[in-house]
Design brief:
The protein has 178 residues and is an all-alpha fold. It has one domain. The protein has eight helices and no strands. Helix 2 crosses helix 7, helix 5 packs antiparallel against helix 6 and helix 6 packs antiparallel against helix 8. The two termini are 30 Å apart.
């Protein structure tokens, strides 16, 4: 019964929002279309402003992977992470997650193709996707787009949250799926 209710809600949530938001604006006498066009123009200019930051981020990720630094770091960290129940196969995903969401999605997809989505590694990869964030991406792209230059504390907080999310994902997956 509950599953059916949630299924109906998830089916109609987006169409409802697409109707409700403009309707609310119309009722409040907001020029809905004009406001949308202004927002779209602002979004386009923001997209153009972040292109240099995206290019820099993509180059840094490519250099990190192509230089072998990621493989070296994975090998160096494996004895430590094995003690907490994190398989070596998951370490590249854990290291890349703070850098790139799309890159990690590719790594997670590859892990699931090799080991299966219902394997321990597949489940751990999925949980890690939900418990960590793209810290460096946020700092370089979003902070750069709005001109924030001092982000030392944001970096420390973001990386602490990423490490906590990784450890929590490993712990929870070991408790639930092993």
């Amino acid at each position: 019964m509950l599953f059916n209710i949630l299924n109906v809600i998830s089916t109609w949530a987006i169409p409802f929002l697409l109707l409700a938001v403009p309707l609310y604006g119309f009722i409040k006498k907001i020029p809905v279309y004009e406001t949308f066009v202004e927002g779209a123009a602002e979004g386009f200019s923001t997209a153009v402003k972040i292109i240099p930051f995206l290019v820099g981020m993509m180059v840094a990720i490519s250099v990190f992977r192509a230089s072998g630094a990621m493989d070296y770091l994975t090998t160096a960290l494996n004895p430590l992470t094995a003690k907490i129940g994190a398989p070596a196969e998951i370490l590249p995903l854990a290291m890349m997650r703070p850098l790139s969401g799309s890159g990690v999605l590719g790594l997670a997809t590859e892990l699931m193709r090799i080991y299966g989505p219902d394997s321990f590694i597949g489940r751990l990869a999925s949980v890690m996707q939900g418990t960590t964030d793209t810290t460096f991406f946020v700092l370089t792209v979003y902070f750069g787009a709005v001109g924030i230059k001092k982000y030392k504390y944001s970096l420390a907080t973001g990386l602490t949250a990423d490490i906590t999310g990784f450890l929590a994902a490993v712990y929870i997956c070991n408790v639930l799926f092993r």
